[in-house]
Amino acid sequence: MPRMIRKGDLPTKPCVHCGKPFAWRRKWAAVWDDVRFCSERCRREAKRPARRTP
Fold first, then answer.
1. Residue 30: alpha-carbon gap to chain centroid
2. 1-24 core/surface letters (b: 16 or more CB in 10 A; e: else)
3. Is-contact 53 41, C-beta < 8 A?
4. Chain CA centroid to CA 29, Å
5. pTM
6. What is the pLDDT, as a whole number, of residue 6?
7. How confident is the model at residue 53 (pLDDT cuts 50, 70, 90)?
8. What CA–CA distance (Å, rounded) separates 19 from 26?
9. In the chain, at which residue ranges do the beta strands (DSSP E only) sit?
10. Other CB atoms closer than 10 Å to residue 38's CB: what's the count?
11. d(CA 3, CA 9)
12. Is 41 helix (H, G, I), strand (E, B) or coil?
């Protein structure tokens, strides 16, 4: 039977864009060192140039 792992025991890192910490996911197992953003939205927003407000 597989060993249960609590979410609190998984590695975390901060999102480059928003700074919010996010936890490891199984689909990122092979590329965890390359994952930089917590979500697709943060990845898209980081690509956009910063808006200037008058």
1. 14
2. eeeeeeeeeeeeeebebeeeebeb
3. no
4. 13
5. 0.73
6. 86
7. low
8. 21
9. 12-14, 21-23
10. 19
11. 13
12. helix
